[in-house]
Design brief:
By secondary structure, this protein is an alpha+beta fold. It has helices at 11-17, 26-32, 34-43, 91-103, 118-125, 161-171, 174-177, 224-234, 254-259, 301-306, and strands at residues 2-5, 22-23, 51-57, 64-69, 76-83, 108-113, 129-139, 153-155, 188-194, 197-206, 211-217, 242-247, 263-274. It is built from 10 helices and 13 strands. It is elongated.
Length: 309
């Protein structure tokens, strides 16, 4: 078996298999669909791009490929696509993708997958471990014909950035924070202020075929069902499916989603493969050289008392 970086003559293989694999990054797959693959394919030809594609060729086993996404300087890389699904039985490709992510400077390689999928055990055997669980809820097209003007949700402003990050740090467990970065400043969204306290934030990622929403609501917030209904009305009219991801540490919000017409699409384990561990190296500072000239000793108190007139 040969595993190597993607080159132009592998294009027929990738096109043939692009519908036979599994997307391990649901936000991209549900909001961009096939265009995700097209974007990553184009990015593979660009120097300094975010996508890494590796191809596995074998005379004895099936041919396949895998893709990951990593922005330079980010500690996290995402395992985006593996095809065909039978490639999970070949651990070499997953291991090679981990090495490629580490060479780019990533500390963690993340993938989301259902625990009843055949690839779940394959990822565990490749040293991936569960650090969170999530449920993806969806609504094809909210049947709303009117918007609401006095909604408690307001458009997120630049000045809200620190408060949104503070809400994230208060709600998200430390174990998750070790793997994931703070909310993406490039994502649009809404905020819910109650007086001087930020009690809610919705991070939105709109793609060609769907909208992805991550909802963060403080347990102190009241009328959560009504809050979600106001969000739906404020963003109406919806022209594409809406997907909401709820992590296990905020599962108490799920009844409010169900009451607003959402249905469960996926229940997934969010897994991470540790690629590197940061080491704290002590900083070495030069100590100034002490003057070697001995200072002149002052007279002792006893000597001063003896010479006192």
């Amino acid at each position: 078996m040969t595993i190597r970086p993607f080159s132009w003559h592998d294009t027929p293989l990738l096109i043939r298999l692009r519908n036979d694999g599994i997307c391990l990054e649901p936000r991209l797959g549900l909001t961009r669909g096939p265009s995700t693959f097209n974007h990553l394919l184009q990015d593979a030809f660009l120097p300094g791009g975010c996508a890494v594609t590796l191809v596995s060729r074998s005379e004895e086993n099936i041919d396949g490929f895998g893709q990951l996404l990593h922005r330079h300087g980010d500690a996290r890389a995402s395992l985006v696509y593996l095809a065909p699904e039978g490639i999970f039985q070949q651990a070499g490709l997953i291991e090679a993708l981990g090495i490629a992510a580490g060479e780019r400077g990533a500390f963690n390689l993340v993938a989301s997958i259902s625990e009843d999928h055949q690839g779940f055990e394959a990822l565990r055997n490749a040293d991936f471990h569960i650090y969170a669980r999530q449920t993806v809820w969806h609504m094809q097209r909210p049947a709303l014909t009117e918007t609401i003007e006095d909604s408690r949700w307001k458009k997120r402003r630049l000045s809200d950035r620190d408060s949104v990050q503070g809400l994230y740090l208060n709600l998200v467990p430390a174990l998750v924070q070790q793997v994931e970065s703070l909310p993406d400043k490039d994502l649009s969204g809404l905020v819910y202020w109650y007086g001087d306290d930020l009690l809610g934030a919705i991070l939105l990622d709109r793609g060609p075929i769907g909208t992805w929403a991550q909802i963060l609501i403080h347990p102190a917030a009241e009328q959560v069902t009504e809050l979600i209904a106001e969000f739906l009305k404020q963003e109406a009219p919806w022209t594409q499916p809406l997907y909401v991801v709820i992590r296990s540490y905020q599962s108490w919000m799920e009844p409010a989603l169900e009451q607003n017409g959402f249905e469960v699409l996926h229940r997934q384990a969010v897994m991470v493969k540790r690629l590197a561990v940061g080491l704290h190296k002590p900083a070495m500072n030069n100590i100034p050289v002490i003057d070697t000239v001995r200072p002149e000793m002052s007279a002792s108190i006893t000597e001063w008392e003896k010479n006192r007139p």
